[in-house]
Specification:
Number of helices of chain A: 2
Distance between the termini of chain A: 101 Å
Oligomer: heterodimer
Structural class of chain A: alpha+beta
Structural class of chain B: mainly alpha
Radius of gyration of chain B: 15 Å
Number of strands of chain B: 0
Mean pLDDT of chain B: 88
CATH topology of the domain at 177-254 in chain A: Thrombin, subunit H
CATH class of chain B: Mainly Alpha
Helix content of chain B: over 70%
Low-confidence stretches of chain A: none
CATH topology of chain B: Arp2/3 complex 21 kDa subunit ARPC3
CATH class of the domain at 177-254 in chain A: Mainly Beta
Largest sheet of chain B: none
CATH superfamily of the domain at 177-254 in chain A: Rod shape-determining protein MreC, domain 2
Order of helices and strands of chain A: HHEEEEEEEEEEEE
Number of helices of chain B: 6
Helix content of chain A: 25-40%
Low-confidence stretches of chain B: none
Strand content of chain B: under 5%
CATH architecture of the domain at 177-254 in chain A: Beta Barrel
Shape of chain B: globular
Radius of gyration of chain A: 41 Å
Order of helices and strands of chain B: HHHHHH
Strand order of the largest sheet of chain A: 1-2-5-4-3-12
Number of strands of chain A: 12
Chain lengths: 270, 158
């Protein structure tokens, strides 16, 4: 090629180019790609892929460097936000626990046991005394006064203990009483629930105009050193007024059905 | 054959850059034409027939990889490479800015030649793109010239 006159070489190359261009055009018209283009594309594709990868990586790096001050500011903002949220967690947790307890009682769910508790089997039942015997005792940390909770609600209170067993009065026991609250958002009336020796409990609230209605659910009020707040007690069956004493009374069906309970939990104060 | 290998590798690399980077680093209507830039640089110190061969392969690769009008590109690139070779050898003081001038002028020439050979539908758009490419290539020519001189010196020392 070196010895050829330049005009001849240039003309030959241009003619060759137009010849290949003609093949390319025909292939295009047929909806395909000609052999020359396929070969050239195949040769250039790996390099193009590599350069695309490098450009993407470099672009990402440059973008990161460019945005670094803004990202640093954002990180600082988020760290401050995290610190603020962390500091507000204890107060929020307490509020949410109260709300959770209230909502669980409204839905008829047993209270979440916030305290340490020990599982126990009922190994004795004395219907005439409204009392049960459990297979846990002082060795398990159980002491007199500990509440006994069944899956559906409050069942009773431990009154006697030995090393390995204990006795608990059922909530239907005439000696049993517990502070109760109406678990209704509009009411929140507080009173005392007592056993009376049969299957029905009595709620006494002051004054006689207090807002306690039929079908209200009752939960432990939490105004007690013994019972945590929110354990379901029962449902109001009937309401009456005792004008002599100026109180409102209600008959209450216990939530925990002794006939169906075999396992319970005894709450232990830490 | 061995003499043709290095330009071929450079042209393939330029074609790869054309596919991968040209659109990505474009500024408005100005986009670099790596194949044209590479062919002009390879032609600067070549004799005419070699420059024509470089221009031919540059045009062929450009038309083939981008599926563009291959005949028009081969013709315009071949003639541009020949012009670049003649122009640069005629200059008294070749340097980076001379190279930039030659690259800018040749890019403009290639674009205008393509305008006559290919008769694009949007003539104003083609002219704007040609001017943009000429300026972009001229700017790129300065560091490329510097790199080629450094590489040549390092090769001579080695």
């Amino acid at each position: 090629m070196k010895n050829r006159p330049p005009w001849m070489v240039i003309t030959a190359l241009i003619v060759l180019g137009y010849g290949i261009g003609l093949i390319q055009t025909r292939a295009k018209d047929a909806g395909g790609v000609d052999l020359f283009s396929r070969v050239a594309q195949g040769i250039c594709r790996p390099g193009a892929a590599f350069l695309t990868y490098v450009a993407d990586w470099t672009g990402g790096l440059a973008s990161g460097v460019w945005r670094a001050p803004a990202l640093t500011r954002r990180v600082n903002e988020l760290e401050n936000e995290v610190a603020r949220l962390k500091s507000s967690i204890p107060e929020r947790m307490a509020r949410l626990e109260r709300e959770n307890t209230r909502l669980r009682s409204l839905m008829g769910m047993p209270a979440r046991l916030m305290e340490k508790s020990v599982g126990a089997d009922i190994i004795g039942y004395f219907p005439d005394q409204h009392r049960i015997q459990l297979n846990v005792g002082e060795n398990d940390g159980v002491k007199p006064g500990a509440p006994v909770v069944a899956p559906r609600g409050l069942l009773g209170q431990v009154v006697e203990t030995s090393k390995t067993i204990c006795y608990a009065n059922l909530i239907t026991n005439p000696e049993f009483s517990v502070g109760a609250r109406v678990a209704r958002t509009e009411s929140q009336v507080v009173g005392i629930v007592r056993g009376r020796g049969d299957d029905i409990l009595i709620l006494e609230v002051y004054p006689e105009t207090a807002d306690a209605q039929v079908n209200d659910r009752l939960i432990t009020s939490g105004i007690s050193a013994t019972y945590p707040e929110g354990i379901l007690i029962g449902t109001v069956l009937e309401v009456s007024v005792d004008r002599n004493y100026g109180i409102r009374q209600a008959r209450v069906i216990p939530s925990a059905n002794m006939a169906k309970v075999r396992e319970v939990r005894v709450l232990i104060r830490p | 054959m061995r003499q043709a290998l290095a330009p071929a590798i450079w042209l393939v690399a330029a074609a790869s850059a054309q596919i991968a980077l040209s659109e990505r680093i474009g500024l408005g209507f100005a986009r670099p034409d790596f194949l044209l830039l590479c062919s002009i640089f390879l032609s600067l110190r070549s004799e005419i027939n070699g420059a024509a061969a470089v221009g031919f392969f540059a045009g062929f690769l450009h038309g083939a990889v981008l599926n563009a009008s291959l005949g028009m590109l081969v013709a315009s690139r071949t003639l541009t490479a020949v012009i670049a070779s003649k122009l640069f050898s005629a200059l008294i003081d070749p340097g980076p800015f001379t190279a930039a001038l030659v690259v800018g002028a040749c890019s403009l020439f290639a674009g205008i030649l393509a305008l006559f050979l290919g008769s694009p539908q949007n003539i104003l758009g083609h002219l704007a793109a040609t001017i943009g490419t000429a300026i972009y290539n001229a700017v790129l020519a300065v560091p490329v010239y510097w790199l080629t001189v450094r590489t040549a010196r390092a090769g001579a020392r080695g």
